Amino acid sequence: MKKKFAAICISLAITLTGPGMSMVTMTYADEITKENQQDQEISNDQNNTKDGENSNTNDGKETENDLIQGNDSDSSQEKAEENITEEESKEDNMEAQQEEPSEETDSEEAVTQRKVLNINDGWNFSTNDTSTAGWNFPSGAGNGVVNLPHSWEYVHPRQSYIPQMNSKTVTYEKTVNISEIKNKNLFIKFYGAARNTEVFIDGEKVGTHVGGYSAFVFDITNYVQGKDEITIKANVTNIDTVSIPINVDYTQWGGIYRDVELISTDDQYISLEDYGNKGIYIDSNVNGTTADVNVKNEISNKSNDDKELKIVTDIYDADGNKVTGTEQKVTAKANKNVQPYSTKCQIDNVHLWNGTKDPYLYTANVTVYNENDEVLDTVSDNFGVRTYEIKNGKFYLNGQEYEIHGVGMHQDREGYGNAVPDDLKVQDMNLMQEMGVNAIRTSHYPHSQSTYNLADERGMLVYCEIPYYLLLSNAESYKTSIKEELKEMIRQGYNHPSIMMWGIENEVYQPASAAAFGKDFQINENTLVSFNSSVAKLAQKEDTTRYIVQAQIDSSNANKVCAKWSKNGNVDYTGVNLYVGFKSSVSSADDEGRKEITDTLNRKLNEYKQTYNASSMMITEYGAGANINQHATMDENFSWSSDDASKDKHYEEYQAFVLETYYSLIQKRKDIPVSFVWNMFDFSCYRNEGGIPRRNTKGLVCYDHTTKKDAFYFYKANWNQQDKFVYLTSKRYTERDTKYQQIKVYSNCEGVELFVNGQSVGKGRKQQSGVFVWDDVKLDDMNTIKAVGTSDGQTYSDEVSGIKAENKNSATSIKYQTHIQSIGWQEAKKDGQTSGTIGKGLRMEALKVKLQNKKYGGNIEYRTHIAQKGWQDWKKNGQTAGTTGEKLAMEAVRLKLTGELAEHYDIYYRVHSQSYGWLGWAKNGEIAGTAGLAKRMEAIQIKLVEKGGKAPGTSEKHYVSNQGVFYQSHVQTYGWQTWKQNGETSGTSGQAKRLEAIKIKLQKMKVSGNIEYQSHVQTYGWEKSWKKNGQLSGTSGKAKRLEAVKIRLTGEMKNKYDVYYRVHAQSYGWLGWAKNGEKAGTEGLAKRLEAVQIVLVEKGGAAPGSTEKTFIKK
Question: What is the pTM of this model?
């Protein structure tokens, strides 16, 4: 069993220094010479993957200014191990299998194993400031007695972005009794103090640590000899300009915000001096069902004599059973720290660490014995065995493709600053797992070891990075801090199987504004490239087993410079932080807006792949802000400006719109193996935007780490397929500005049905994976909305009440834009204004139309006839109809309203056509323009008129054509209708009138051939012969319905064109487009045809619409 460490008391005082502080220059022995290496390293197999390099040792005992980097686990783990838990039971099992000295031997004063004392409680804290203005203490009190972890911030009352104005130095002080361990070696370990820390013992300075995000250790043995009680003081400074980070976009919380421990050891112990790690490094290599495990153990010997030691390294499985182990006899040199000894063992039938699917962990237990076989020291650490790689645009874990579900995450939390208790970190991890996260970018600095322990246990993949952001300085202290913090990060995190990537920088590109921070920040490109190249090489040297990566800002020039230090394998992968759609303008929040975002993203990603000569790219950040109290309807009338990102409106619905668009692109591309949503949680920053002061609103969960935004459920629907659910979006949007709304649901169910005020609206249309929508849902003044999903026979539901809807905007109007030769897109026009040009001989090439302030259900739809291409597909609500960049003219256009809009309005439109000028006003789907005459459209006018109202002008001669397919139908009651052509509707819909006969002909086609057709007639069945060239097919005067038709081309027409046709059938509505003799309609169901449309398409061209369900037979 673990030995309980008797309570002792000492006094500490720590001061954080500010600008102008005297930095203590540390001596780092970055490499051990080959002679020393051979002298130090004794290995059973002579295999040491780290080769003793970068061990940061001094050959003699540490002087008072020597900084000793320490152990790698949070004291919270040590405290937790005191409890009787399953983990302790596991360790008991492990200890029971070891050969240990008896209790009598273990208790002798001559040998004292390592003891660890948490000293978090009862520190005297002082701001050293006479004013309280600008101070914030989210965790713990201000001046007076505080318990650690403790966090604070200072922001100058003018909220200055100049670091010097926000810099403060505070003092923590504590007295501790050390009488029980006064003759032992004593170390003090800080797991996190932000950001620079001076440590004093009884007024005598021990040393300074620079950096606020990693653990560090001071050897205080020489300061406590012969004393029963000591006072520890720490001076802690939050911000300076001579170390990283500087000018960051997150709050630089100050304080001792992680645990502090006193650690006592015998003269021989597992090293505490190697950049804060545990003194053991574990590597593994998988070979089939076995794994070779290499463990490098670092030993320190403070005695004046060489010591014969035995190192026992045992490996235990997750149940505490020993699976393998080794024993080494070594000679530890006198007065030497961090002496590396490597050993290798093999695990048979290895159980791999397999991400969230199976995060299996082994434990390495290292025990050091003296020559009398007495235990001197024991350290254990968990590790996992796994392989991973990126290839062919995908991520592979243990040889299997593994889809990355990544988020970025800062460590602060509302009410705590950076001093977040471990139980709340567990809550955060639970939230991420609920959403389906399996990868975390711990931004933009190393997080606590407890976070990485959780990641190991839960199977999260981790991208861990140093706080090197935006700027390089010529100051040597600044450059040193970058490299030293890199070593701390890698060495402290080395054994975590969750960590797969080391990040060396974030958006470092030295913008011109850097000069504002002083002359040291005036860096030329060559200096930047040279230094960052050296940082990358250092990272590669520190760890050859993981990817070395970086994140760059979305800038062509910045990435071109970045590529210069990344070449030759210095950096394995570069990611780009992309905010297209949030920091750039988007004209509408509809399909057209999605296309704008997607097109821009594709262009940028392709450019950056070329810049880095890479086959794939990471997206290291993407996101948009959201304030859950701000809402808007996402449709063709919503637009976003590039400067809206920094303004006070961040709509919850717009965040979801942007993230849906990004995710769709990521899923479709095959070259984005890793991506991270920015951010999992809102976090504190220095900006004021989105209507919340000092808040970055891009989180999927609010700053309370509890309230989930709509977009949280979008990712849950895509990433978590186990926990079935239905989520109605926009629940907090309680006062809607129109009664016709798109309702959206996120769900991982197979299908979802919507109910409004108890009435079914039907099944949702699947917009994309996890997203179900219902267009133009009519709401009452007050509404209850419910969604019910089904999956494997089970139902899941979500409901919201109290949704008010009111038509608040002005009358419905129409808005349209034209793309003109040599000009491009013109400014939008509306309600009958002229869009295009007259008298300039310029062709119209494309058109976008949208409705504003809709008060009825339905849409505007439109299609264009393009020179050389013919009729294009129908578009709607601001989508582009026509072409751009192809130099092709629009020749004709059709527009129509659908749904309730068609019942309340007529849509009129006329075109200005080459040679003809203004043609007459067409309406409601009729053709306006020309066909077969090679005449360009030059301008257009569009106008809404109340149903049955007067046309804006003459309706004569709105379409001029001399060729194409023409057809005429005989309709119940009405008889023969006028000839229609080229896709127009012949017949009726919604009037329950049967088609009885049809005539079809070709006119003025330039190739030979005919059109033939055959009808299926009530009672008679299929006609026995094909009709052609205007002959009657069907019956007249016999009251017999047409039920189906077939149409085909002959001769050269068959080789040049496809003939498409579709029918409107009783009970079914419009069926799909059949072609070239296929059956269209029904058979054996006694269903009448009511209307028909026929179109000629150049051979192999796109169908006019869906070709599904063209014919239904009983």
Answer: 0.76
